[in-house]
DNA sequence: GTGAAAGCGCTAACAC
DNA sequence: GTGTTAGCGCTTTCAC
């Protein structure tokens, strides 16, 4: 690091021009006489000179960096969103600082603060504080503080009263797609497993579940909606509870709050040597786990690439199109695979 | 962005001190009279002032950023390495720029170049050019060019003649662990599926496989070692080929070049209604897929957190401890789960 | 213990 | 077309 790196001045001196001219050649979109341009370019080439982006950032006040805070990149839902954002950001010349909050609020705060200091041009956040049905006052204040200096965009989350960018899948619609589908193939007894009460993504789904059940005049059995969590073992636990507590009246279809929960539920069935055809399973998120699972999961898919594009566009255009619908909702799609069977005879 | 942000000069003026003093207060490790320190601190607080890290980077010539280039963060092997690196880097005050090369050499080059311009203090690279048994000349030159200005560290890769940092799991040892284990539970007919010839991580494993087979005086059947690729469908294809071409003489154990390939092999067996107990399966990498799989995979585990720590330490200490073993090899461990069964009677 | 001032490497007016 | 110059916001000698 400490080795004196070569600068625009070194190039200028050798090319017998001013630093400004070198800068113009670098920028490419200024009038420079072809002859001098060539001369400068050849010297740049000769030394493999690379302009210092930090210095450029300081003068231009743009870092071309976006911060991305999420709970855990090893979770395929997050990594699939991330990669789409990154791909699209790259086409715009932006790089991403990835910060894993590990579901730790303090860590999340720390990351947010550091990103702001690093002068990222925008922050994308998923999980954590933006998915609390009862937002934490302090956490929200931190966010709104940050929003004073740079645009913040939430993916699949929303905080009432915080006027920031938000883009999310219509999860209620997702549940609707699932239930309509299950009903269409003859199911009337439908369970919903997993999630945690108080997390928006869960609450939205549970509410939609109840409302759809009622709209279809299906039986609503409280014991068929079981909170537990978001990972595989949550799925196992919830399935176990479902089977233990409803011996006389089991559902025929099981919706998981996400793909992972369904995989847990499948495993619990496996452990109990229950024929998987006893139930139809539907996941949520269409992570790559849904394809890895055996059977492959029918699941609700986010439109990942659209989320990625919209997120970056919203963030980067935030300076121009002020207050132009900061709030985008994206339709989910039902991805039908092998985990559901048709009810025959009924 | 364009709103004039508050600077140390604003703080200085209001505190009736010089900017230098504010800077000292910020740094925290300089002698400042307690009284003035408090006064300055309170004003910093009052405005929620956050120093501009870009400006600081320019003067101090340190960005506290590390670049990480890998093929695809949605691949759990990479995300599991990444997250360990990120966690540890954070404790050192470093943030990570994550760049997905999508297995595209040009994209990889572009990322490397941009990271250098951004003045990251080091680059960690996985996949792509660093895993070619016959390295591409141009690609290697790019790397060595970059190594002139900043330290580069390869994870699970190595290029002969490139004197850069490297940290990798002893994969030959991993294969040894697997084969010794399989032999210990009575297997003598062992296949190796997946991978691509010419990719170091494959070549190392294939070579170790052959040498171990011979060391144990087991039969080496060429048709039991099948190249195909690294993903699930590669696993399916390889298993299919194994079953079709060796009808008279099938192995009893199947090693996958990685977990994903084994999951594909399992699926192919499922498709053919082959009892999974017909074969013992062993994966490689111990990604979280190994636990998700049904049955859960016995697999070779990388020591992810150790890799993360060592990688960051090597990179950040590179200025001091010049040329002190730049090359670290880490032992794998065998993670025994449910995908192998003991051969009885033999 | 504190301040003045010179950079860090680049860009952007503004002259010429 | 090209050069001069004044910053961008911070840190760091070097005086005092």
UniProtKB/TrEMBL annotation, chains A, B:
Transmembrane segments: none annotated. One of its GO terms (molecular function) is DNA binding. PROSITE patterns: HTH_LACI_1 (PS00356), HTH_LACI_2 (PS50932). Keywords: DNA-binding, Transcription, Transcription regulation. It comes from the Bacteria. It holds the Pfam family Peripla_BP_3. SUPFAM superfamilies: lambda repressor-like DNA-binding domains, Periplasmic binding protein-like I. This is DNA-binding LacI/PurR family transcriptional regulator. InterPro entries: HTH_LacI, LacI/GalR-like_sensor, Lambda_DNA-bd_dom_sf, Peripla_BP_I. Residues 6-60 form the HTH lacI-type domain.
